[in-house]
Design a protein that fits this description.
heterodimer; A: alpha/beta; Rossmann fold; two-stranded antiparallel ribbon; 7 helices; B: alpha+beta; Butyryl-Coa Dehydrogenase, subunit A, domain 1; Butyryl-CoA Dehydrogenase, subunit A, domain 2; Butyryl-CoA Dehydrogenase, subunit A, domain 3; 3 domains; four-stranded mixed β-sheet; 10 strands; binds flavin-adenine dinucleotide
Chain lengths: 264, 387
């Protein structure tokens, strides 16, 4: 029997303009919120492992660290098919950095002792692409990022990672932490019944004390990364224009350009 | 004006927002990309409908007992608006299917519900609603199709005109005359595709609604088991009208969706299209047009929700409110869609941009499920009595 934990985060809706609140140095997360769209791929991956029988999954548990409003993201996660959810919420968590968040998540995961932890590749707001790795580090488990294909053979997973150029094929033995790229699957839509039934699935709400998490390692108390300022990124250099005078020559130029960059 | 308790306020709860978001996502991903092509090729994408049905959209406001989703009419309005943003025609066919399904679920006995609802809910079987005839459009109670009892069968004769889904549907809810003239002589039947004596006319060529078939349904000594009678003899017109209360809201919601997507396309377009050295969206007259379009849509939507809530609450004024909503919403939305086309200039007139299709599709909504004049007849009769 296998248990999968999926890490999910509540983020501002894609339509909301994001900006840093200069008084706190944190992202302004007001406005409409939703489940991090990248995490729906992690949920889908868990469900596909369960439904295909590739792993003998008896439970998929969605876990989040976030403010009280994050229950909505958990409802969404269970409407998509997770069996239950866990919500760590505590005022002392406010202002946690990636490492603090990774620590808190790892502590929650230890309580569940799953065989596999799946995460999205990035959050739609913080976008550090790092929480999965931080969690793996705290657990002392192998951590893989940007996975876009998962093949199971017993306790061994053969994963394809999207690399800078091309793909890496990597084998890991469970337990492991894997963050998936959005090319891994097409997440399903929640059915009307699943949406209406989401509030009936078990949701465990924990404070730091409940979860026996060290408050000095999270929140403002524990953070090591502090936002100090921001700048506009430098303007991109103009692209290269190739005039199509002689098609054969044009094709050659394009091929050479792509070849230079090892894109073909 | 009366309101009964239970009428929803102007705020959607989390579940309703999720439902609307899911339907919108489905429309964006699965419907909108195909809409222009389906219109051109007169193609009803049954595979996409079945995918929607897997999410519960085949029997949205039916009871859960036999496979319905148990949603309210307000939920349904949100869903049909969302689907309508992808394609008003696909949304409207889904609405007609839902209406026919609801009639069987609500007025059928358990045997009938068990027999037909699961297939309709999954859209393995598509539904059709057959009331209109060549000689009986607005005056639907004057229909001439007959059903004569013969042993354990009824024998149906006549022809239904303008039937959406004719030829592709598997289940036809047909209103026919078993008794005297007028509404009390009408009975509803469920006729399955393949029944001897059931045939279809040629597909009509239409201004819009091209992605769904419209044809006549012909009944020539069509023998239908007594077990397929829906409700009592003489109860058919009441069933047909009950179906339309919700059907009219859905059609109005499909129009909302069409106009909403026309508005969204326009907001983007006027920001990009440059004339006189600047994006045309900088011209105040264009900004005001867009402000008015958005305002009119919000007004229409608010009223649609009010009527839907009245139907949910079984408000005694529900029929009047549904008729009012159908009339105003379908009138306002086509005007908004037409303005959107205008703001796209010549490009709005090209098929590729999808605007002219929305206008053509929404034009049908002022006619079907009772013309907007008939909506006024219903409202006037309700508030003035029969003078
Ligand atoms: C009360 C409270 C307030 C918070 N306020 C802030 C704040 O002001 N600023 C801020 O940056 N963060 C805040 N957090 C959340 C936390 O600090 C961030 O989640 C963390 O910084 C994640 O980094 P990221 O978004 O770049 O994730 P990434 O590394 O880009 O995310 C990768 C993947 O990791 C997983 N993941 C990421 N974050 C979480 C999470 N919180 N729970 C579960 N899974 C997760 C997801 O699967 C995601 O797809 C708050 C948390 C709490 C409890
Ligand atoms: C694309 C399409 C799909 C359709 N799908 C279906 C379907 O699935 N099932 C179905 O049963 N029907 C369907 N219909 C039929 C539709 O409901 C009828 O066309 C409609 O009810 C009008 O009837 P009619 O066409 O006979 O017009 P008529 O009733 O002849 O009306 C002609 C004009 O006279 C006006 N008028 C009539 N009576 C009055 C009055 N008392 N006061 C003032 N004005 C009046 C009308 O408003 C209209 O402007 C469909 C029609 C179309 C175009």
């Amino acid at each position: 029997m296998t248990k999968i934990v999926v890490l999910v985060k509540e983020v501002p809706d894609a339509a909301v303009q994001k900006q840093v609140d200069s008084s706190t140095g944190r992202l302004d997360r007001s406005g409409e919120k939703t489940l991090n769209p990248f995490d729906t791929h992690a949920i889908e991956a868990a469900l596909q492992l369960k439904e295909s029988g590739a792993l003998d999954v008896d439970e998929v548990v969605a876990v989040t660290v976030g403010p009280s409003s994050a229950v909505k993201a958990l409802h969404k996660a269970v409407s998509l098919g997770a069996d239950r959810s866990i919500h760590l919420t505590d005022d002392a968590l406010v202002g946690s950095d990636v490492v603090g968040t990774g620590y808190a998540l790892a502590e929650l995961i230890k309580r569940e002792s799953p065989d596999l932890v799946l995460a999205g590749q990035q959050s739609d707001d913080g976008q550090s692409y790092a929480v999965g790795a931080a969690v793996a580090e705290y657990l002392g488990w192998p951590g893989l990022t940007q996975v876009i294909k998962l093949d199971v053979d017993g306790q061994t997973l053969t994963c394809e990672r999207q690399a800078e150029y091309g793909y890496d094929t990597v084998k890991v033995t469970l337990p492991a932490v894997i963050s998936v790229g959005d090319a891994i699957n097409e997440p399903r839509y929640p059915s009307l019944k699943a949406i209406m039934g989401a509030k009936k699935k078990p949701l465990e709400s924990l404070s730091l004390g409940d979860a026996e998490i060290d408050a000095s390692k999270v929140g403002e108390a524990g953070r090591k990364a502090v936002w100090t300022g921001s700048q506009e990124p430098p303007a991109k250099a103009a692209g290269e224009l190739i005039e199509d005078e002689d098609t054969a020559e044009t094709v050659e130029k394009i091929v050479a350009w792509l070849d230079d960059r090892k894109l073909i | 004006m009366s309101t009964v308790s239970g009428t929803a306020p102007f705020h959607l709860d989390d579940d309703q927002r999720e439902i609307a978001a899911m339907a919108r996502q489905f429309a964006d991903d699965r419907i909108a990309p195909g809409a222009v092509e389906w219109d051109e090729e007169k193609h009803l994408p049954v595979d996409v409908l079945r995918e929607a049905a897997e999410l519960g959209l085949g029997a949205i406001y039916c009871d859960e007992e036999f496979g319905g989703s148990g949603m309210t009419r307000l939920d349904s309005a949100l869903i049909f608006e969302a689907l309508g943003t992808g394609c008003p025609t696909i949304a409207a066919y889904t609405s007609i299917h839902n209406m026919a399904t609801w009639m069987i679920d609500t007025f059928g006995d358990d045997e009938q519900r068990a027999k037909w609802i699961p297939g309709l809910a999954s859209m393995e079987t598509l539904g059709a609603y057959c009331l209109t005839e060549a000689g009986a459009g607005s005056d639907a109670a004057g229909l001439a199709t007959t059903a004569r009892l013969d042993g354990d069968h009824y024998v149906l004769n006549g022809a239904k005109q303008f039937i959406s889904g004719a030829g592709v549907a598997g289940v036809y809810v047909i209103m026919a005359r078993t008794g005297d003239k007028g509404p009390k002589g009408i009975t509803a039947f469920v006729v399955e595709d393949g029944t001897e004596g059931l045939s279809f006319g040629k597909q009509e060529h239409k201004m819009g609604w091209r992605a769904q078939p419209t044809a006549s349904v012909n009944l020539d000594d069509c023998r239908v088991p007594v077990a397929n009678r829906l409700g009592e003899e003489g109860g058919g017109f009441r069933i047909a009208m009950a179906g339309l209360d919700g059907g009219r809201l859905n059609i109005a919601a499909c129009s909302m969706g069409g106009a909403q997507s026309a508005l969204e396309k326009t907001i983007q377009y006027v920001g990009e299209r440059e004339q006189f050295g600047q994006p045309i969206g900088r011209f105040q007259s264009i900004q005001f047009s867009i402000a008015d379009m958005a305002t009119e849509l919000e007004m229409a939507r608010t009223f649609l929700w009010r009527a839907a809530s009245a139907l949910d609450a079984k408000d005694p004024d529900k029929t009047r409110l549904c008729a009012m909503a159908k009339r105003t919403v379908t009138d306002i939305t086509i005007e908004v869609a037409d303005k959107a086309l205008q703001l796209h200039g010549g490009y709005g007139y090209l098929s590729e941009y999808g605007l002219e299709k929305i206008v053509r599709d929404l034009r049908a909504h002022q006619i079907i499920e009772g013309t907007n004049e008939v909506m006024r007849v219903i409202v006037a009769r309700d508030i003035m009595g029969r003078v």
